[in-house]
Target: Pectinesterase inhibitor domain-containing protein
Amino acid sequence: MPSRVQREQHHRSRSLIGGKPKKEKKNDGMASSPYHAAVGVAVLAILLAAPAAEAGAPTAAPLATYSLEDACKKTGPHYGLCIATLSADRSAKSSDTVGLARVAVLAAQKNASETATYLSSIYDDDSIEKKTVQLQQCLEDCSERYEAAVEQLTDATVALDTGGYEEAMALVAAGQAEVKMCQRGFKAVPQHRNILTLRNREVDQLCSIAFTITKLIRVSPSAEE
Model:
């Protein structure tokens, strides 16, 4: 018969052998934390918003395409000067409307630059009779205005090259305004009012041509029919 000590040892051994170990709690891979849930919601929102953003994104209006002759027809009374000016540039015959506008602006800029040079020469010309203080002031004012016009027309070509068509129109209009102000200034010296009349008129007309053709860039020919 086993002793009391032997019975206790046997009981402890049985408990160790037959006892069930505690199971470790498995980490459920499908469980989601609040952080993961928030990320999922954010991603879903982005995916849903993307098509809406693309649908609402503004698209640039297509550029119009005018032939040299059709573009010049839009200049009205300046049609003859327009044809002569643009045809003088070989690249104009194969240019799109932007190219035609650039040729027109450059023609106005070149003419304005030549007039600015002419102004410098007559300002120092002693052959002009009765060169009063008023006339000298008028010539000086015109010289400054033409310098500004040349700069604005030069900037207009840069604007055309970078797609700033509205800016180009504004710059051409500003240059044209300088020329008109020059001519208006000669009202103070009526006896010399014709010194720059022909030159001012030509630059003014070239600016009108450049402005009109630049304006056509966003106007489709079919839309005007």
In short: Residues 68-224 form a domain with the Butyryl-CoA Dehydrogenase, subunit A; domain 3 fold (CATH 1.20.140.40).
